[in-house]
Amino acid sequence: MPEPLVVAGAGMAGLAAAVRATELGADVVLYEKGDRPGGSMLLSSCVVWRYRDWERFRAECPGGDPELQRVVWEGLDDALSWLEALGAPVLSRDTGNPVTTGIRFDPRGLTDALVRRAGGLRVGEPLAAVVEGVPTILATGGFQGDRELVRRHITSEADALVLRANPWSSGDGLRLALARGASLSSGLEEFYGRNLAAAPRIGFEDFVPLAQVYARHATVENERGERYEPLTWSEVDVVQWTARQPGARAWYVVPDSALGEPVRERTVADAIAAAEAAGAPVERRDGATRVQVVAGITSTLGGIRVDARARAADGLWAAGADVGDISTGGWASALASALVLGRIAAEDVLGGPG
Ligand SMILES: Cc1cc2nc3c(=O)[nH]c(=O)nc-3n(C[C@H](O)[C@H](O)[C@H](O)COP(=O)(O)OP(=O)(O)OC[C@H]3O[C@@H](n4cnc5c(N)ncnc54)[C@H](O)[C@@H]3O)c2cc1C
Fold first, then answer.
1. What average pLDDT score do residues 138-159 get?
2. 260 CA distance to ligand 1 centroid (A)?
3. C-beta 324 within 6 A of ligand 1
4. Is the minimum distance from the CB of 155 to ligand 1 under 6 angstroms?
5. Which amino acid residue places its CA nearest to atom 27 of ligand 1?
6. What mean pLDDT is predicted for residues 93-121?
7. Cβ contacts of residue 342 below 8 Å, gap of 6+?
């Protein structure tokens, strides 16, 4: 390949693409807009997972493209072995969820293992244009960081949302792809995120501890008292509903009898204690605790439409949260699809295996 391969974004998708392309002999230039590599992956819990059963994946994310979903689902186990072989440190082989399988990595160690092999990394340099004739992989991490795009596609309460992600993923990949003739995917109005305790200040270090993921044990209502009945195990529907309520806020009303229920490594009471300690509104009366939550947006789920080889347009590939049609209608690991499609994009550009 005479021209260097351009990759935009040094998060999970872009790093996986850059490392795979380097392995296959390419000369790579990896642009990173932020002041460090790792994207939202570095801030994440770093559980890279898939549904155990294909039918369950289809049932959980019925709006996605089955061909694209199949490629991610079938490719994950090999891709995880590849990460391990690169030296990514494993924290656990248990996702903590019986319907899923995967690996929890140490996010810093995983980022470092990928960066060591990526080569050509230019930190602090955003990709601003796609050059005709230069093969380019877009992996800029979605559009949750752009208020106007969020307002247009997701909620009129965009200003009230908490950005629970890196601050640099603001739709650059989407704009660049559309300018080169790519199409939009389904599900532009959907996103993955978490309802967070409505504390006065929420920093990067609070993204996991302040998450309130126990709506199934609570009555969920907005400030007008209108209720919402949670539908999914991941509670992605609850945060999407909350994002569309006044102030992007809701109340969880938890009966005392539910305070001991487990929520991952904690109990509901522990999560509420973290909310209270951070200064979020918490009220106790009539045998129940009321906790105010605010919607935190992590990754947009709609974006660029790609085929099963991650092709978006002529000479243009895309991977990661820039790409839609995988989780539509529900939630599947964005780190998993970023990893698998990033590798596939590199292989397709280089005409290698796959
Ligand atoms: C607190 C938290 C917990 C999470 N937990 C999990 C989890 O356990 N499992 C899971 O699957 N997902 C999880 N996620 C979501 C996951 O981290 C992201 O969905 C994932 O990182 C997306 O990968 P990506 O490569 O598309 O984007 P990122 O990893 O965010 O990388 C995108 C990169 O592109 C860069 N960029 C943006 N614009 C440009 C440009 N113009 N030029 C060059 N670079 C650009 C950004 O700076 C960024 O570094 C979590 C996220 C958070 C914040």
1. 98
2. 33
3. no
4. no
5. 141
6. 95
7. 12, 13, 14, 15, 16, 17, 20, 137, 139, 310, 319, 320
Nearest atom in ligand 1 to the alpha carbon of residue 321 is: 26
DSSP secondary structure of 216-267: GGSEEE-TT--EE----TT-HHHHHHHHTSGGGEEEEEEEGGGTT-EETTEE
Question: What single-letter DSSP state applies at residue 143?
Answer: S
According to the model, what pLDDT value does residue 336 have? 98
Cα-based distances in Å from 245 to 13, 96, 226? 32, 31, 10
CB 143, CB 149: distance < 8 Å: yes
Look at the pTM and tell me if it is higher than 0.90. Answer: yes
- Asked whether the beta carbons of 324 and 187 are under 8 A apart, the reply is yes
- Ligand 1 centroid to Cα of residue 336, in Å, is 11
Tens of pLDDT along 55-68?
999 999 999 999 99
CA dist 149 and 153 (Å) reads 6
Q: Is the pLDDT of residue 292 over 80?
A: yes
Locate tokens 């002041």: which residue?
Answer: 35
User: What DSSP string runs through 61-103?
Assistant: STTS-HHHHHHHHHHHHHHHHHHHHTTPPEEES--S-TTEEEE
Question: Bridge partners of 227?
Answer: 221
Distance CA 316, CA 294 (A): 37
**Measured torsion, CA atoms of residues 23, 70, 89, 137, in degrees rounded to the nearest 10:** 40
Is there an atom of ligand 1 within 6 Å of 95 CB?
Answer: no
Residue type, 354: G
